[in-house]
From TrEMBL:
Pfam families: Big_2 (PF02368). SUPFAM superfamilies: Invasin/intimin cell-adhesion fragments. It comes from Ruminococcus bovis. Residues 163-239 form the BIG2 domain. This is BIG2 domain-containing protein.
């Protein structure tokens, strides 16, 4: 009987451990289905290709909470005529252009609108473009709504770039003897960054030579080794090197 009761107690304790001790994993942080990290800077660009010249466009971009809009830029094609935009709305950017004298040319793939956001929240976040009106010079309707819409003839694509928040070197200071070499290691964060490549250079090329993170001490003196991200975030790290 004692063994039976002991076995039951063991099962109850183990069950409690699984219920209480192992909580469900946290929901992933994503932007339009792509993994992102809180604090990360992300650029989102909507590109358009249209078969005809356009004279009128009305559109808005909607985005969910957890995103802080930092900047926005537009195609120069929309600024040939009358252009109006408002990005001071709550989680929405509105823009429209009327270009009758100089129609908008999107026959080649063009960046329509480009936005920079900071990830401030967690969970699933979304950004979407709503092309309400897009009228060609011959009257053809390419907007999402309206009679005889030719919206499916447009080629609209999205380019999302997840930028680096920081870069660090494995050394802050280093002492080398002449003709000796050392290989630096750079760590780009966060892990969700798309482009983690860096560019290497030194402050004094008479003292150090560098290639792909590997330095060679040329002569006595002091020089800094720098690495810089190449994804547009312009994050840098440095190490002071003394050659003896």
């Amino acid at each position: 009987m004692k063994k039976f009761i002991s076995s039951i107690l063991t099962v109850i304790i183990l069950s409690t451990m699984f219920i209480v001790g192992f909580p469900a994993s946290a929901k992933a942080t994503t932007l339009n289905g792509k993994a992102v990290s809180k604090g990360q800077i992300v650029t989102v660009t909507y590109r358009i290709k249209a078969p005809k010249l356009m004279e009128d466009i009305q559109a808005h971009v909607d985005y969910t909470g957890g995103l802080k809009l930092m900047s926005v830029s537009y195609s120069s094609e929309m600024k040939k005529g009358s252009f109006v935009e408002n990005h001071n709305l709550t989680r929405q950017i509105r823009f429209n252009a009327v270009c009758i004298m100089k129609p908008m040319d999107f026959k080649k793939t063009t960046n329509l609108i480009s936005m920079k956001f900071k990830i401030t929240g967690n969970g699933s976040m979304k950004i979407s473009l709503n092309l309400i009106c897009l009228d060609a010079t011959d009257g053809t309707n390419y907007g999402r709504t309206g009679a005889n819409s030719q919206y499916n003839k447009l080629n609209i694509s999205t380019v999302t770039k997840r930028l680096a928040s920081s870069v660090k070197l494995n050394r802050n200071t280093l002492a080398l003897k002449r003709n000796k070499t050392y290989k630096f290691k750079a760590t780009v964060s966060p892990s969700t960054t798309d482009n983690k490549s860096v560019k290497w250079y030194v402050s004094n090329r008479k003292v150090l030579k560098i290639s792909n993170g590997k330095v060679k001490a040329v002569r006595k003196g002091t020089s800094y080794v720098y690495c810089k991200t190449t994804d547009g975030s312009n994050k840098t790290a440095k190490c002071k090197v003394v050659v003896r």
